[in-house]
Amino acid sequence: MVSGVQPTGYLHIGNYLGALRQWVLHQEQYENLFFVVDLHAITVPQDPKGLAEATLSAAALFLACGIDPSKSTIFIQSHVKAHVELCWLLNCVTPVNWLEKMIQFKEKARKQGENVSVGLFDYPVLMASDVLLYQADLVPVGEDQQQHLELVRSISKRFNSLYGKKKRILKEPKPLIQGNTSRIMALDDGTSKMSKSSTNDMSRINILDPPNTIQRKIQRCKTDSLMGIVSDPVGRPECTNLLNIYAAFTNQSLTQAEAECREMSWGQFKRVLTDALTTSLEPIQRKYHELRKDEDFLRQILKNGSDYASSIAQVTMQQVKDCMGFIPIH
Ligand code: AQP
């Protein structure tokens, strides 16, 4: 299984519940590669210092959240050169009109106007390289990545039919769809996704937010004037989202959390939610700060990870280049 996080800002509880926490569970079940996708991050403008810091911070959070480097491979995408190399080769088999259909491109391009880069357009092909390079069977995806994964499968199929003759060169990975936590919504708007790159820090809880910041954000988050804390995705999106977050951080189903909170006032609910968040995030934050004190240790884990990932990637690259007619170095 492969999965990644973009260092486009500090990781939030959506990234934790939708990705990192699931990854920890998956590491007992699958052979995993988890990486910080810094090459993807630059498809929208990034400040270089901010990118470097966010990259190391994300890698440290992988470990702090429980990814064990003796069970899973952790690395930085740009440290394995084959991602870019395979991306170029796949670019040459991917029809432009497939990429033109990508909803995420259309949405991000609309926001960026004339400055939209070729890289943003090509984002899904780089994602295809990330996955196909390691011959992954499974890719955990939230709702918004499902279209991209379908494209990855189409690219793989097309590559195999053009170059594979009777052999399958690249695998067709399957999506691993998450449950209720696959889409954690923003604190200021229960209908839009919690996001790292939103300019409003009050719209999200970052994994590294100290307790007083978490308290302030929950205190000021958008609510409604109705009685009772119940799930009603259409009528009460903010309430449903907060209940969903509470359920996830107290390891309950949504139904169980609703039974516990149904009679609470907003004030009572915000207190228990703040407690659940601060208590769950405290050990992660402690581990994170320890790791950031020993950068050599972190960098060594990342180096081991990229060495191992490169060795797998090389096998795929050789097969891909051979069947496309590239001459190997003598
Ligand atoms: N709000 C979310 N709820 C649940 N899961 C989420 N993920 C992201 N946001 C939520 C999951 O986190 C993983 C890494 O995501 P990404 O780095 O590719 O970023 P993204 O999905 O584009 O959203 P972000 O983190 O908010 O970043 P920006 O602002 O840069 O778009 C993925 O598994 C994703 O599903």
TrEMBL record:
It catalyses: tRNA(Trp) + L-tryptophan + ATP = L-tryptophyl-tRNA(Trp) + AMP + diphosphate + H(+). PANTHER family: TRYPTOPHAN--TRNA LIGASE, MITOCHONDRIAL. NCBIfam families: trpS. SUPFAM superfamilies: Nucleotidylyl transferase. Its main location: mitochondrion. It comes from the Eukaryota. Keywords: Aminoacyl-tRNA synthetase, ATP-binding, Ligase, Nucleotide-binding, Protein biosynthesis. GO terms for biological process: tryptophanyl-tRNA aminoacylation. Its EC number is 6.1.1.2. This is tryptophan--tRNA ligase. It comes from Galdieria sulphuraria. It holds the Pfam family tRNA-synt_1b.
